[in-house]
Every structure is written in C-alpha cells, then in structure tokens.
Amino acid sequence: MRLGKLLTTGCLSQLLMVTVVVSFLSVGCGGSETASGSASTTTGSVTLSWQAPSTNEDGSPLTGLVGYRVYYSEISGIYTNSELTDTSTTYRIVGLGNESTVYISVTAVTVIDGIESESFFSNEVSVYIPVV
Questions:
Q1: How much is the CA Rg of the chain, to the nearest whole Å?
Q2: Residue 30's pLDDT is what?
Q3: How many domains does the chain have?
Q4: Beta carbons of 36 and 75 less than 8 angstroms apart
Q5: Which of 20, 70, 71, 87 pairs as cysteine with 79 (C-beta 3.0–4.6 A)?
Q6: How many CB atoms neighbour CB 31 within 10 A?
Q7: Pairing state of beta strands 22-35 and 39-50?
Q8: For residue 42, what is the domain's CATH number?
Q9: Mean per-residue pLDDT for 56-69?
Q10: What are residue 18's DSSP bridge partners?
Q11: Between β-strands 81-84 and 100-112, what pairing exists: parallel, antiparallel or unpaired?
C-alpha cells in the first residue's frame, strides 16, 4: 500500500510519501491485573514490528522522522486507540481483551520546520487474542 498525507499550510503543500509495512512478532496472553483488590481481569498483548522507511516514495531521503503512531481497535479500518512511539520499529500493545480480534495499522510521523506530518496508514494487520 502506498502511504502519504497531503499537508497544506497556507500556500505550501507537502506530500509525505513513505511506506510502512507491519508484521507481527508475537501474540501473548497472561498476566493479571487486579482492580481495587477484588475483580481480576486477564489481558492479552501484541508485539509488532515494521521496517523503518528511509526514503519518500519519490526517492528523496526521508527527513525529520520523530516516531510512529500505532492505531488499533476491534473494528477494521476504524481505529479507536492510538499511541505515539519513538523511532523504534518494535512496539507492544498491552491491555487487549481476550477472545477478541484486534486490527492494527501504523503511520510514520515527521516534524519539519516545526510542522508535524503523518503518512497514510500502513497495511492493516489483524490478530486474534485467545483465552488464557
């Protein structure tokens, strides 16, 4: 999937075109969280990784990369959660419900001249979180 986002500031338009390809490293369940010492909820986690982009799609060097935004939810294409990460290409999402399917996509985030820009979404990946 080609990624890009048109950023318009006054008369200036900048197209950030990068490719982020997501793959999974592992899916885990386990660990208990206890709320107020009474109810116990077991949660799942997903560790994912992706290849860092180094160029824009036009071949020019990618500059100003400050991190990635990881989007996820239980509805494909409609992401209700997001987390901004650093430039590491591995990220672990925790606190996921058991017996659920989670859909995940990643964007690259750059800052150039104080202006933040974000690529289009990467390929969407889905993972089923089983019961512990």
A1: 17
A2: 40
A3: 1
A4: no
A5: 71
A6: 13
A7: antiparallel
A8: 2.60.40.10
A9: 87
A10: none
A11: unpaired
- Mean of all residue pLDDT scores within the chain: 72
pLDDT of residue 37: 27
Given the structure tokens 């075109």, which residue do they identify? 17
Q: Which helix (H) or strand (E) holds 115?
A: strand 115-118
Domain containing residue 97 = 5-129
CB atoms within 10 A of CB 65: 16
pLDDT band per the 50, 70, 90 thresholds, residue 20: low
Other CB atoms within 10 Å distance of the CB of residue 56? 19
Q: Is 36 left (phi over 0), alpha (psi -120 to 50) or beta?
A: left
Are 18 and 4 in contact by the 8 Å Cβ rule? The answer is yes
Relative to beta strand 65-73, strand 125-129 is: unpaired
